[in-house]
Amino acid sequence: MDALRDVRVLSFNHFLAGPAAAQILGDLGADVIAIEPLEGAFQRNWAVAGHYVDGQSVNFLSTGRNKRSVAVDLKHPDARAAVRRLIASADVVMENFRPGTMARLGFDPDALLKEHPRLIYAAATGYGSDGPYAARPGQDLLLQAMSGLAAHTGRAEGPPVAVGSVVIDHHTAALLVIGIVTALYRRERTGKGGRVEANLLQAAIDLQGEPITAWMNGAPHSSPRGPGGVAGWFSAGGYGIHATSDGHIAVSMATPADLGKALGVEALLPMSAGDGLSRREEVNRLVGEALAGQSTAEAAARLDAGGIWNAPVEDYDALPDNPQLRHLQVFRTVEGATGAPVTLVAHPVRYDGAAPDISRVPQPLGAQTREVFAEAGFSGEEITRLAAAGAIGLPPEAAAETMTRREAVAR
């Protein structure tokens, strides 16, 4: 995929939303250069479930493909001066620090845009770049709580429930990419860059656009969560996840009468579509009782025959065997940078019938430091001097070479 060929991105991102957004740009063909501290960005050193694959954090594996890695100490004046030379050749600078951090490091967004009018400066924050919450820590679970997502998830009879994935970070990443691509298109028309911002709080609200709009415009409700096991406060009876004799099955939108026909529940047959809401707890109970005595396969067959949308509830272990996921080649197992096989989730959009390739697996820290600085016009001697001063980090073999030269000079 080369849609963003010739677009150079400097990614100062850490954690998840920012790195994931940069990865999408890399998938689309941009030259993404990850600017990392000498000890590596956060996502290299913190692993989901504490799990590492041949020394590689799975957090990093999920956000690190199609990028080049440069290791620098942004607190070192020589490193900051060197990075300024990289910015001069960049189309996009991305970061997801708390507001003001880049300015304190010497990279004030307004100053950069004044110096480089075509530059696009993109930031992902927790709550926006200003306002009463701007300095608060932004993290997915906290935003699930603050945005109403947790309050509206789960059963009315139980407590609020967190979604079992970092959905807000991933949605923020997608929104940030939309903003960056839009700004690039605008620059083609006007010649001017500018600022792009996305934040976790608004991404969390955007994820819930339909139910929030209904709620704020007076839709009737008795609870923020669905009563009697109904999947949503706004949904009719039957809509939700029901136990079967050997698992669970999700049942989508249907009238009580259609559910009654499909499942052989006579008590549902005379009910109207309106009863689906007004008597939803009763409807849900009757549907649940009917499904509890059937296997998931039997229930799916009956629901399919009745034209009722449904799906089995499957764990991650079942995903590789899902025939549609196999057809779409959603999971890609490739040789990682260390030589060990790693399974990655592919880019989710298809272009002319195909998803972008994984052109570069997640790279070791600083693997392209020398290469990137050489492209920016630094001589080999300058790069070696910066490494010896501790301003930049080189890959192990290059670092060993630098150490040998340093020891030779000392002798």
List the helices and strands and how they pair.
Blueprint: E1 8-12, H1 17-27, E2 31-36, H2 42-45, E3 52-53, E4 56-57, H3 58-61, E5 68-72, H4 77-87, E6 92-95, H5 101-104, H6 109-115, E7 120-125, H7 140-146, H8 167-190, E8 194-199, H9 200-207, H10 209-216, E9 240-243, E10 248-251, H11 256-263, H12 275-278, H13 280-292, H14 296-305, E11 310-312, H15 323-328, E12 331-335, E13 341-345, H16 369-375, H17 380-388, E14 392-393, H18 396-410
Parallel strand pairs: 1-2, 1-6, 2-5, 6-7, 7-8
Antiparallel strand pairs: 3-4, 5-14, 9-10, 10-11, 12-13
Helix pairs in contact: 1-8, 8-9, 11-13
Structure description:
The chain is α/β, with parallel strands linked by helices. It has two domains: 246 residues, Crotonobetainyl-coa:carnitine coa-transferase, domain 1 (Rossmann fold, 3-Layer(aba) Sandwich), CATH 3.40.50; 82 residues. The chain contains 18 helices and 14 strands. The protein has a seven-stranded mixed β-sheet, with helices on both faces. Strands 9-10-11 form a three-stranded antiparallel β-sheet, with helices on one face. Strands 3-4 form a two-stranded antiparallel sheet. The chain starts with 7 loop residues before the first strand and ends with a helix.
What's the quick description here?
Helices cover 39% and strands 14% of the residues. The chain has helices at 17-27, 42-45, 58-61, 77-87, 101-104, 109-115, 140-146, 167-190, 200-207, 209-216, 256-263, 275-278, 280-292, 296-305, 323-328, 369-375, 380-388, 396-410; strands spanning 8-12, 31-36, 52-53, 56-57, 68-72, 92-95, 120-125, 194-199, 240-243, 248-251, 310-312, 331-335, 341-345, 392-393.
